[in-house]
């Protein structure tokens, strides 16, 4: 099963591509330009040029599963939030249906209520909430991963769904990528939505509690 990774050149996406290649998992990475393409192809990743604001159909052909880990980033305006985090996710969900994908894995956010978020993040949180709802209502089986506050700490490969004094509601990008890679290797996991934080459980224990 070939997994299309949307957001492959992001901070989580690059980590995920490296893990997938190491694990021998077939992937295709959607990238926006030739510079990104060269970087990922040097790692042994199959790539396809495309843009969430442009044509995407060609990227989906020949794939069976979608990982959506794209984001407009903190330095863009509301226009990009709408086009990437909302409309981009909607379009990918529609194409996953049209191409008969077996599963969609959405990397979202733990903070799902826009009204509880900081003023500057309310448009982003609104976009993510709507995109998650679209994926959850799709006939394509789904998994929605809801990471806490992201850090660049080295991955521990140990996880939790709950905030405690040790993790402070945080999770490393390494650990997020590791969990998504584990999900990709197990097609029996679907119709799941869960928070993800750093913790003490290895993957086997964490999975059994989902």
UniProtKB/TrEMBL annotation:
<protein>
    <submittedName>
        <fullName>SDR family oxidoreductase</fullName>
    </submittedName>
</protein>
<dbReference type="InterPro" id="IPR036291">
    <property type="entry name" value="NAD(P)-bd_dom_sf"/>
</dbReference>
<dbReference type="Pfam" id="PF13460">
    <property type="entry name" value="NAD_binding_10"/>
</dbReference>
<feature type="domain" description="NAD(P)-binding">
    <location>
        <begin position="7"/>
        <end position="187"/>
    </location>
</feature>
<dbReference type="InterPro" id="IPR016040">
    <property type="entry name" value="NAD(P)-bd_dom"/>
</dbReference>
């Amino acid at each position: 099963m070939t997994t299309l990774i949307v957001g492959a050149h992001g901070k989580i996406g690059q980590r995920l591509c490296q893990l997938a290649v190491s694990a021998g998992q077939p992937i295709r990475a959607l990238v926006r330009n030739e510079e990104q393409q060269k970087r990922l192809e040097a790692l042994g990743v199959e790539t396809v040029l495309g843009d969430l604001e442009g044509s995407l159909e060609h990227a989906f052909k020949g794939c069976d599963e979608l990982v959506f880990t794209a984001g407009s980033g903190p330095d863009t305006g509301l226009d990009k939030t709408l086009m990437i985090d909302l409309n981009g996710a909607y379009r990918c969900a529609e194409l996953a249906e049209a191409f008969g994908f077996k599963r969609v894995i959405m990397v979202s956010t733990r903070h799902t209520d826009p009204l509880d978020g900081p003023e500057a993040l309310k448009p982003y949180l609104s976009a993510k909430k709507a995109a998650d709802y679209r994926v959850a209502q799709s006939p394509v089986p789904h998994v929605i991963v809801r990471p806490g506050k992201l850090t660049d700490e080295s991955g521990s490969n140990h996880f939790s769904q709950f905030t405690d004094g040790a993790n402070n509601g945080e999770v490393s990008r390494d650990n997020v990528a590791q969990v998504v890679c584990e999900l990709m290797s197990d097609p029996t996991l679907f119709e799941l939505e869960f928070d993800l934080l750093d913790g003490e459980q290895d993957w086997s224990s964490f999975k059994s509690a989902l």
